Amino acid sequence: MGERQAALKLWLRLLAAKGVQELVLVNRPWPREVPLPSTLFTLSTLTRLYIGVWKFPDAAGLRGVSFPHLRELGLCLVEVENGDIDAVVARSPVLEILNIQGSLRGKCLRLVSQSLRCVQVCTSVTVMESTEVVNAERLIVCEDMNLSGVCTRVKIGNAPKLKLFAYLEPGKHTLEIGDTVIMPGVEASPSMMLTTVKILSLHVCFGVHKDIKMMPAFLGCFPNVESLHITSAKCDQPTDKLNLKFWEDEAGPIVNVLLRIRVMTFREFRGEQYELSFLRYFFKSTYALNQAVISLANPSFTSRSEDEMISSVVNMRIGNFASEFEVLFYVSTGPEGLSRWTFKRGAKFSDDDPFATVKIIPRPGDQTSQACKCHN
């Protein structure tokens, strides 16, 4: 594509003249060091733009540029420097959806926008240094589950509209709220709480001591969560003694678990003892829970059968639980570790909870309801 820059610039000028509204511009084949033509930024009529496998132009060169009608922007495997993405967001006054896929090693995002509703960052190659969002309603940060030894700092400054936050990983994410880094054993103060978040999704390796020690600290920052969705990560070498006593002694009471959570989803359940210990603690502690959905891992990838995994939950001492609630089971038929997240799901605003594996739909004309499986 490098030798065809002149032709590409001409094509973009023609598109600008025709008032194009939606554009997908991908540089194939690689490398992605080919600079993105600055002519692209003359397409002021765009409402939806996706670019892939390019080198982003210097943000300093974008003076006077704006996308007055752009509502959705996607960057896939685009080489950027600090400030590049922030500059485009600042120049897009009605932008609602920002999707980023690919490498952001050592980069910081500070997204200040009054219009931005959904930010999804899926770093499948490397990880970013930090992300700070302001005024977004949904923040979804996905890491490559196969990467190890990497850590992303997720910083949330002024986020008065944030309602949905995912996938927070105690083993991979350092959470910073305001100027405070959330650490185990630190009691959450009002300045460390995101009180607007109603839906929280966690990706947890319950067999690793340092990971689960972060869970109470993380949960304490979201006192008004009503829907908690947990994905259990596979653990090859679990830490010993991660039993119910561990949770009762070290986790202690978690305010939002006791008072607020109405729906809990536990995905990729394998029937391991460390998973059951958490479920016992959760079920004994929660008072508002109406429904728990246990999604069994695909039996093709586990050492236990479907019946064995279900029995391990059913045989828990229900009488000791703090409240009555419905437990639903379903068996995953997908790949180990679940299918990759899709931007379309996260940005579907008509779905108030895109992480719910089962939704309760009222039956027409009566007071009963029926369960509907949404996606695997």
From TrEMBL:
- Keyword Transmembrane helix attached: no
Q: Which domain of life is it from?
A: Eukaryota
- Name all FBD domain ranges: 257-294
Looking up Pfam families in the UniProt record yields:
FBD, LRR_At5g56370
Keyword tags: Signal
Identify the residues that the record assigns to the F-box/LRR-repeat protein 15/At3g58940/PEG3-like LRR domain, covering every copy.
Answer: 9-230
Q: Which InterPro entries match?
A: F-box_dom-containing (IPR055302), FBD (IPR006566), LRR_FXL15/At3g58940/PEG3-like (IPR055411)
Q: Where is the signal peptide?
A: 1-22
Q: This chain belongs to which protein, by name?
A: FBD domain-containing protein
* Source species of the chain: Triticum aestivum
